[in-house]
Each structure stands twice: as C-alpha cells, then as structure tokens.
Amino acid sequence: MKAMVIEKYGKHVPLMMKQLPLPDIGDHDVLVDIYAASLNPIDFKIKEGKVKFLLSYDFPLILGNDFSGVVAKVGRSVKGFKPGDEVYGRPRKTRIGTLAEYISIHEDDLSIKPSNLSFIEAASIPLVGLTTYQAFHDMLDLQRGQKILIHAGAGGVGTFAIQLAKGMGAYVATTASDKGYELVKSLGADEIINYRKQHFEELLSGYDAVYDTLGGEALEKSFRILKPGGKIVSISGMPNARFGRDEGLGWVKRVILSIVSRKLTALEKTTGTSYRYLFMKPSGAQLMILKELLEAGRIKPVIDKVYPLKDAGDAMDYLASGTAKGKVVISMK
C-alpha cells in the first residue's frame, strides 16, 4: 500500500511516499480501505517531536490520526462490522497512521459513518469531535445556560466546538480574525472577539468555562475571565501533574510535569479555578453519538481544503500556518 511517512522527527523533515505491506489484523481488528483522512495539529506536533515525552514511535512512521473508509476485512472475533461497511474512526495513539491506503484498527475505535456525510466530510470529524465531546461532557460538564469561551473559533476544532456548545444550550464567545468572523457567526457564536484588535480578557468576565486550543499566553489570560469555580480544558497547553496521575505516568514524569506547569497551578490557586489538559481517548461508542448529531443536522462539517495523498506535506504546512478555516482533508480516492 502507499503511505506517507517520516524517517525521523523534525520541523523540516519531509513526508515521503513509500510502498509498505498491508497491516496485519488481530482477532478484534478491522482492516479499512481509507478513502479520506484529515490533518490535525497533533500531526505536525508528532512530526516535529514535540510530544516525544508522552508518545514514543518507531520509524518509518505513518502520520495521521483520523479517517473514513470502507471495511475490507475483519478479524475473527469482530461482531459489529463486516466487509463493505462505510466507517469512520480515530485509532488509538499506539496505532496511528491514517495517511495511507489501509489501516488496521481495533473495533472499539470504529463507528459506522454518518449516512448523510461524504467520505471527505466524515474524515474531518473523529479527532476534533471526540476531543470536544470529551472536553464538554467529561471534563467541563457544560450545562445549558452556562457561558464558555472557545478560542480560535474558525479553526478545525473551533468550528465543531461552537456547534456542539450551542447544541448543548451554552452561551458561546469565541475569538476570530476579520476573515473568520462571518464563519463563526454562521455557526452560532453569541459573542465574537477580534483577536487582532481586541483583548478578550478585557471584554469577558464571569465565565463558567474556557476551551483552549492555543496554549501559551492566551491560556494564561483565560484564567482572568472565569468566575470562581470555573474550569479550563486545554488541548494545547502544558500537561500538569494531575494529567500525569490520570494517565498513569511514572513518578519522574509526574514530577517534571509538576515543575513545567507550576505557573498554571499558581493561576488555578489565585483565581479559584481548575485547569485540565486533555489527551483525547478513541471511542467508537462516542463516535456513534456524534453520528446521530451529524445525521440530525445539528452539527455540520466545515472543510477548508482537500489535498491528494501525494501532497500531504503541503497540506501539513498549510495547517501549521494557522490560516485554515475549518478542516484540512487528504483524499485517497
């Protein structure tokens, strides 16, 4: 099969097309003929070696973390899928590699594709959908009438997050540029802060929650807008010791995380709020829940650009530029 791989970590390391054997499947695995895969910030972070502390991979490494396609073969113990099924999924972190013509994925990480979506649209959903669902339901416990700030509302995560939060009955503020204004408005954002001209921390206050997709200074300033007891979930900030405990990391790594996240811990204490770092977990069951929302039209995919597999490197560069409005998708067909 054809696959886009890297031979080592590095920002300027090229993605290379290689011919590789078809992946093996275990008793509970499903072999999927990939029709489309989307790119996510985690892909270029892995490529650049920024998550080596948490994730270790062998080379050559096939990048890519979510996809849609058609089942080609199933393991002998698989009950929920059969050849010919149209599916979408997010493989577990030890088995990434969706920038390829085929993938072997555990059946628990897979779901039937939403019937009203194309393969391109379906491929754009699993990672951002699961990440946001777990942030809102499992960590923030977002309730109707609560106020949430979603950073970078016009991005791949933000466009999904705004729709999910509005569907849950929340009041949504978001940050965007002039170019993203109309898009986030059309998705239902109640308040839009132009981050090039305005300072969100000066305009917002008394918020219940923040969904941080940026990290850095934006994350630190987000503590100022929360009311006491408010919560921040970040997918781009620094993992803390709480994350280390939850993930079962060794004590050395937990100590290191405690040290590097000490500024965030101090902000938690001084503002009376809580901060959690989210490392999304694959879930076919949650993808089925999202399938129902998508088929009901309550959430609609937002696609920016589609690239062929051979141009995945250019697509990665475009995503890393930070200018994408919605998702960047790779088409295999």
The succession of helices and strands, N to C, reads EEEHEEEEEHHEHEHEHEHEHHHEHEHE
Poorly predicted tracts of residues: none
Sum up the overall morphology in one term.
Answer: globular
List the domain count as a whole number. 2
Major β-sheet, in short?
7 strands, mixed
Instruction: Estimate the helix proportion, in percent.
Output: 25-40%
Domain Enoyl reductase (ER): 10-330
Protein name: NADP-dependent oxidoreductase
GO molecular function: oxidoreductase activity; zinc ion binding
Keywords: Oxidoreductase
Describe it for me?
With 333 residues, the protein is an alpha/beta fold. The chain folds into two domains: 155 residues, Alpha-Beta Complex (Quinone Oxidoreductase, Chain A, domain 1), CATH 3.90.180.10; 150 residues, NAD(P)-binding Rossmann-like Domain (Rossmann fold, 3-Layer(aba) Sandwich). Strands 3, 5, 6, 7, 8, 15 and 16 form a seven-stranded mixed beta sheet that branches. Strands 11-10-9-12-13-14 form a six-stranded parallel beta sheet, sandwiched between helices. Strands 2-1-4 form a three-stranded antiparallel beta sheet, with no helix packed on it. The two termini are 13 Å apart.
